[in-house]
Amino acid sequence: MLAPHGSWPTPFDAAAVSAATPRIDGARFVGDEIWWGESVPAEGGRLTVRSSSGATLLPAPWNARSRVHEYGGGSWTADAVGTLYFVDAADQRVYRLPRGGEPVSLTAEGPRYGGLELRCGRLLAVCEDLRTTPHLRAIVEIPLDGSAADDEAAVRVFISGSAFFAHPVSSPDGTRIAFVEWNGRLMPWQSARLRVIPVDGDAFAEIDTRAALQPEWISDDELLFLDDPDDRWNLQRLRLDGLDVRGREAVAPADADTGGGLWVLGNRWYRPLADGRLVAIRTNGTDEIVVVERDGSVRGLGVPVTGEASIDDVSGSRVLVSGAGASSGRGLWCVDVDSGEVRTVRGGARIDEAWTPIARQVVFEGPHGPVHAYDYPPANPDAQAPAGELPPYIVMVHGGPTSHVTGAASTAYAFWTTRGIGVLDVNYGGSTGYGREYRERLDGEWGVVDVDDVIAAARGLAASGVADPRRIAIRGGSAGGWTVLSALVRGGAFAAGISRYGVADLRMLAADTHDFEKHYTDGLVGPLPEAEQVYIDRSPLTHADRIDVPVLLLQGADDRVVPPSQSEAIRDALAARGVPHEYVLYQGEGHGFRRAETLISALTTELAFLSGAFGFDPA
Fold first, then answer.
1. How distant is the alpha carbon of residue 74 from its chain centre?
2. Is the dihedral of CA 265, 312, 323, 590 positive or negative?
3. Dihedral sign of CA atoms 52, 53, 59, 62 in order
4. Model pLDDT for residues 295-325, shown as the tens digit of each residue
5. Residue 329 CB-density burial (10 A; 0-12 exposed, 13-18 middle, 19+ buried)
6. How many angstroms separate the CA atoms of 498 and 336, rounded?
7. Separation CA 517–CA 591 (nearest Å)
8. Which pTM was predicted?
């Protein structure tokens, strides 16, 4: 049929998008089964644990979600006989759930726990206690017998302080623990130390690292970890004699990142196999899963994952890989490294390229250098636009800002592209996945480089004749919402803006934000109070009188990272000047929307908003 862009009929409605692809959160081999964590939008976004046997192992209302460092991660693990250990979202206590039994608390109420790591019968975790001043964090061992459920002191503390910790892992002989630590004045991708401490005693080994990630013991005297001494995160091998360092070498270094922003505690960028080989992610814009052989040679592993990748577990020659692909949705795969057999465990359905064509990698020239992006053009086998009509586009801005997008297939984007609206996903300067130099392009320049880059991408797209320059919108959440509002203040490039829980006032952000990001803006903008005037000048709220296009503001009422006061300040400023705008506050939602009803409402509201801004009638 012939219809204007934006009015094409499509099977991708908001409800279908909400239910389309599972969000996997960790996976484990448990006996003959495979277990994985999965968010359930229809149940308020709770995280359950499911099995390849078809069983739901964590029933409602239990919700395996940690709030350590606010972003959590590592909220569940399991032993070989099928005992589940998890952090419950409601009280942040750790529970043991035996197969066929009921959850039993292992910790007392009060502290938060996350980053659960069970090896050699020892359950390690990162603990965070916000009841003290200053707030304290620690690497701890949680007794499996339940003795700490009523006695907080029964939790064994190996190291504690106001610093931040991640990735605790015990040596095979049980005598030492390796972990990552950073002081909080810098973010972990700027500077993080690898440390090794004895289980008994106060000594420690502090290894010279730049931004360490994910230690893994491969013997009592050898440790693997990730670091980026030469612009890229790569594998490193460390030889130890007790706590004494005897040698260090890079393992199969490449011009790609094995590693990324340490936002959550459950990230796994590689796993060692028992025979000495390694399975790892290499990221250069998109993700590739590779096998590093014992001789250092590298080969690709034929798993259809190009983004959001995680190497979740290994058993013999089998590997569990979660993520999304350029031609497949989010999923979980079991791959045999020897035979090459790939088995889909959950999700991972191949896309129909007639409806959702593979994203096109594009590079635009910006004032600070090349700008990487992915173009999802309009596609619908049952509709086309009148001759000569260029499509409207949405420029997507990822959050973080120290994060990146990979061009993976997305039903959320198909919601737009099948209606005749293109999507351009931008990795502006400051994004991960292109090395430290690209990542540090944003240092001191947040609100400048990111804005310059998204504007350069939008104008470059229009100049190439792909998009209607009068109908380009910009959309982003959190830090991406900041870039949205900042770009609207700059003006001239975008005809409408959608901000999901976006930052509007830097001083308000600095005053309200949580511990993990307390000094994030020191590096992105400058330290306070010295840089206060820069904070004022950069904040979209300061210049809200320059916004002259329609704006949609979507916000979670329970957001602790970017509180509703940020969106409401922009709302009030727009209302005072009569600028067209809408503000929607979602009760029960935090930083990022999880409930099915919220996901459906948000997409439906965005479509109605853009149809009014761009003058089309949705089918």
1. 13
2. negative
3. negative
4. 999 999 999 999 999 999 999 999 999 999 9
5. buried
6. 43
7. 14
8. 0.94
